[in-house]
Design a protein that fits this description.
2 copies of one chain form a homodimer. The first copy, chain A, is mainly alpha-helical. Chain A has a single domain, classed as Orthogonal Bundle (Arc Repressor Mutant, subunit A), CATH 1.10.10.10. Chains A and B meet through helix 1, helix 2, helix 5 and helix 6 of A and helix 1, helix 2, helix 5 and helix 6 of B. Chain A binds a DNA duplex through helix 3 and helix 4.
DNA sequence: TATTGTTAGTTACAAAAACAACTAATATCC
DNA sequence: GGATATTAGTTGTTTTTGTAACTAACAATA
């Protein structure tokens, strides 16, 4: 009954394997170059791409837990990639913005990500790529 | 130049989000029911589906590091889901086999995985499903 | 048959993630 | 206005992972 069910066809397994494999090389890039962790790169990306926002905003947009973001923000601050600014209206919030160095790192990594993405999907034809992204976005609930 | 590059289109990001989202519910199942970790479930699956083999075989087939497998085997042994058996010919190897309880757990989880997989892809039509799996297998290097 | 190399698996330690408990600021409701 | 609840963010502790060093068995070679 379940004898023909192969783990290689089990979607969560496949997705994890593909995610791990595809992350590995890019991870090496931001790790060796900027000493960043994955969450740091994501926070940097969100601020670089969408501009100033609070930690909470990043949590919501990126689907990350607040402790992860909190620690990533601290790390990026120590690397001088971002600064915090109190929001007068509500002092629980801190608006986060990238420094010059932060913007440079973002620009570099974003360009690299784009190249990397292109290389990764080079073997697929355009409608395969679109379909792949659509399927993944649906599964991810984005 | 890179201003229009959205992280939601970056394949490693998408793959990770989709992998996390899709794993969550199933993970909850084997965790609450059998107290298993992800690696334990994978080891269990390999032994249940492909029969007796050594830890090394599982490493190779599942693309897992030997320390992970070693710990998972210890954990599954303590749960009485598998037993080890020395290989006379070469005492470095240990052949691993599921116990009755291990087989039961495998059957239960495999059936659940199958249901879960079906539910996950219910929104896609057949050729989308095939393409998705093919793309993922290629990216994962399987 | 010593020497060196390789392989399977374990163990120990460091890095990272997950989870819970906490502080401080603001909102709500009596 | 004061008790209570919520929200943003941090800190501390426990799990889990990653990495490297290790043991034991075998292989190869001189």
């Amino acid at each position: 009954m379940t004898d023909d069910f192969d783990i290689k066809d089990f979607l969560p397994y496949l997705l994890n394997q593909a995610a791990d494999a595809s992350s590995l090389e890019f991870q090496h890039y931001y790790k060796s170059r900027y000493g960043m962790l994955r969450t740091e790169w994501r926070v940097l990306f969100h601020l670089g791409r969408y501009g100033t926002m609070t930690a909470k905003d990043i949590c919501t947009r990126a689907g990350l837990h607040k402790t992860k973001v909190s620690r990533a923000v601290t790390a990026l601050e120590q690397k001088r990639f971002l600064t915090r600014q109190e929001v007068a209206r509500d002092r629980r919030h801190e608006s986060l913005q990238l420094t010059k160095a932060g913007h440079r790192a973002f620009a570099d990594l974003a360009a690299e990500a784009q190249r990397f993405d292109a290389a990764l999907t080079a073997g697929f034809d355009p409608d395969e790529r679109d379909m792949l992204r659509r399927c993944l976005q649906q599964i991810a609930g984005l």
